[in-house]
Amino acid sequence: MIISLLCALVAGPAPETPLVVASYSYPAFDRSVALTPLAGLVAEAAGRPARIVLFDTPDALSEAACAGQVDVAMTNLGAYVTMRDCAGIDAVAVLDTPPTVLDRYRGVLLAGSGTSVTALSGLPAHMETLRYSEVLPGSTSGALVQAALLRTLGVTPDQFAARLHAGTHDRALEDLLSGRADIAALAENPWRKLQETEPARAAALRLLWRSEPLPPGPVICRHTDGVPCAAIRDALLAHEASGVAQALAEGWTETEGAERFRAYEEAVYEPFRAP
């Protein structure tokens, strides 16, 4: 016992466990780079190290946060909706995204040229013969809002003949254009871009539905010993955090152009709840 105590004294105090600053991966963006300034801010506010962890999907991020494995995270709307009621989770700030960008952050449901579905009302009767492509589990504009829409029609995505996960919004659109899928769920931006750059290809598809604008996910903090959520919130809302905001904004299409944070407003997010 004495030898062990002497060894501990010689070695010095054990290093502090780093705080986990997290999000989820997406092929189009290097989110480790996007999160680096945020991790630096968190480390400074907490007076201890921070490390970045990227999960495979928004759903995996939400599960880890609810399990106490995440201290601070940049979410999307889908991840936030499923973690918001977990113990200790608090939204502390939101990127102040330009209104024109916010207006473009919508989900769409598209039908391919080879399908017999010409209107949303006709979809339930044909689902068992149709292949469905969505982005990935937990994608807000490329899975969740479309699933919520389908529930209003009395059906779910599992009732399609096949359910594909494309990985990105562009690939979900390509699934439809190439004939790998008959119906696709994705964000509006790739659909807009196709209409502008390749109108002939776009004309072969049918828009079945377009959502209302969707708010971006907030930065969350998990209240626990050693995680100063109030100090992190205040640091994010300070003008000096503009570099953190700009770096994060470059990692998400729906926050493009944001240069600062604004306070979280519960009224904005109240309509969005996990089913």
Could you explain how this protein is built, in words?
Helices cover 39% and strands 19% of the residues. Helix 2 (31-46) packs across helix 10 (229-237) and helix 2 (31-46) runs antiparallel to helix 11. It folds into two domains: 18-101 and 215-269, D-Maltodextrin-Binding Protein, domain 2; 106-210, Periplasmic binding protein-like II (D-Maltodextrin-Binding Protein, domain 2). The chain is elongated. Strands 2-1-3-10-4-11 form a six-stranded mixed sheet. A five-stranded mixed sheet has the order 7-6-8-5-9. It is built from twelve helices and eleven strands.
Distinctive features:
275 residues; alpha/beta; D-Maltodextrin-Binding Protein, domain 2; 2 domains; five-stranded mixed beta sheet
Chain-averaged pLDDT:
91
Q: Sketch the major β-sheet.
A: 6 strands, mixed
Helical residue percent? 25-40%
Question: What is the count of DSSP helices, taking H or I runs of 4+ residues?
Answer: 12
CATH fold assignment of the largest domain: D-Maltodextrin-Binding Protein, domain 2
CATH homologous superfamily of the largest domain?
A: Periplasmic binding protein-like II
Unreliable stretches (pLDDT < 50, length at least 5) are 1-14
Class inferred from helices and paired strands: alpha/beta
Second CATH tier, the architecture of the largest domain: 3-Layer(aba) Sandwich
Taken in chain order, the helices and strands follow as HEHEHEHEHEEHEHEHHEEHHEH
Instruction: Compute the number of structural domains.
Output: 2
The CA-CA distance between the termini, in Å, is: 55 Å
Strand order of the largest sheet: 2-1-3-10-4-11
**How many extended strands?**
11
Task: Report the portion of residues in β strands.
Answer: 15-25%
Mass-distribution shape: elongated
- What's the CATH first level of the largest domain? Alpha Beta
Gyration radius (Cα, Å) is 21 Å
Protein name: Phosphonate ABC transporter, periplasmic phosphonate-binding protein
Pfam families: Phosphonate-bd
